[in-house]
Backbone:
């Protein structure tokens, strides 16, 4: 549309010059220059649209699962990404029961900018010994994002050889 309007204005000015008996400008040269200007405007429009697009992002999904362990009672899970608070959930007895029966809790669904990141998962709960003590366990995971979806499972499982259950992070492909 804009190009057509430019051509009409250019043709009108050529016609006016011929009517005024001024030296005629080479119409082909003017059309060529108008075409070049139009191509430059199109290139700028494409560059502008690319610049307006958000940077490539990565979707991160964090799930929590557990296998029943009578030595540890889960109370809450917290997640930080790059040192910033990302998610926290305090579990009820019904939620713990659902997790123990094989369920998984979607703790976090977040879009991240492309680049290097660190996820820190923190489990808070009580250890059943002679007296109950609050325990905090932490897992760190460094990863690189860049346009794909990552699914991470924070898992609390039994480890018969250790006095505490096993706290782990597993990435699903």
Residues:
């Amino acid at each position: 549309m804009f190009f057509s309007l430019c051509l009409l204005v250019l043709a009108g000015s050529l016609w006016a010059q011929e009517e005024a008996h001024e030296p005629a400008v080479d119409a082909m040269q003017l059309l060529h220059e108008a075409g070049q200007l139009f191509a430059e405007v199109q290139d700028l429009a494409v560059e502008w649209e690319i610049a307006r697009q958000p940077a490539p992002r990565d979707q991160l999904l964090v799930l929590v699962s557990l296998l029943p362990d009578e030595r540890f009672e889960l109370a809450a899970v917290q997640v930080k990404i790059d040192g910033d608070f990302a998610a926290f959930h305090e579990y009820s007895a019904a939620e713990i029961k659902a997790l123990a029966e094989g369920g998984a809790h979607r703790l976090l669904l977040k879009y991240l900018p492309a680049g290097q990141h660190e996820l820190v998962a923190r489990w808070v709960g009580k250890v059943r010994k002679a007296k109950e003590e609050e325990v905090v366990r932490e897992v760190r995971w460094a990863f690189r994002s860049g346009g794909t979806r990552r699914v991470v499972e924070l898992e609390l499982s039994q480890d018969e050889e250790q006095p505490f259950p096993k706290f782990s992070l597993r990435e699903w492909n």
